[in-house]
Design goal:
The chain is built from 9 helices and no strands. The protein is mainly α and about 170 residues long. The chain has one domain. The longest helix is centred in the last third of the chain and has 25 residues. The radius of gyration is 15 Å and the shape is globular. Bound molecules: zinc ion (ZN). The site of zinc ion has 7 residues, from loops.
């Protein structure tokens, strides 16, 4: 693992809890099914979002068909659809690095915040599906991304606000 994702992660505007989650995710230390299985704990047989493949956090964040739908919706609404994860990304960190190459330099900081925000919403929805019996839905996650975007902008995420065209993303 190179130094680079950590530097980018800690420099991005996002609440500390989201950065910490992504830090664990990149290190494969989240409580997804693979980690639970390694510890011989109860775990879902398949990803709680797509119900198709075994779950690990790289699947959940960048490979899962439900997650990819969300990434496409979020990024495409900012005309960045080309940066969305493709079929069979290797890992979240690898996709993140590649996707930034498709983003204008001026917008990268804002897009980094948006990527953390979206990953956070995917994770929260995954937990709601796994523990609260919520039905998985890309539309619900997209809705939560827009809500969270409003909150982060209010809390001072200036570059994120610029990338979201000052709230037009919300409409
Ligand atoms: Zn999945």
């Amino acid at each position: 693992m190179t130094f680079e994702p950590w530097r980018r992660l800690w420099k991005t505007w996002a609440p500390q809890k989201c950065k910490f989650f992504l830090w664990l995710a990149i290190k494969n230390r989240c409580w997804t099914a693979d980690g639970l299985a390694r510890r011989r704990l109860d775990h879902p047989d398949r990803c709680p979002l797509c119900d198709q493949e075994e779950e690990d956090v790289q699947h959940l964040l960048s490979i899962c068909v439900v997650a990819r739908k969300v990434w496409f919706q979020v990024l495409n609404s900012l005309n960045l659809g080309a940066a969305a994860p493709r079929n069979r990304e290797r890992s979240f960190a690898e996709w993140w690095r590649k996707s930034l190459q498709k983003v204008d330099k001026d917008n990268r900081k804002g897009v980094n915040s948006l990527i953390l925000l979206t990953a956070w919403c995917i994770w929260r929805h995954r937990n709601a599906c796994a523990f609260e019996g919520v039905s998985p839905s890309a539309a619900t996650i997209f809705h939560e991304v827009k809500n969270e975007y409003g909150l982060w902008c209010m809390a001072g995420a200036k570059k994120l606000e610029v990338v979201g065209h000052g709230g037009r993303f919300l409409s």
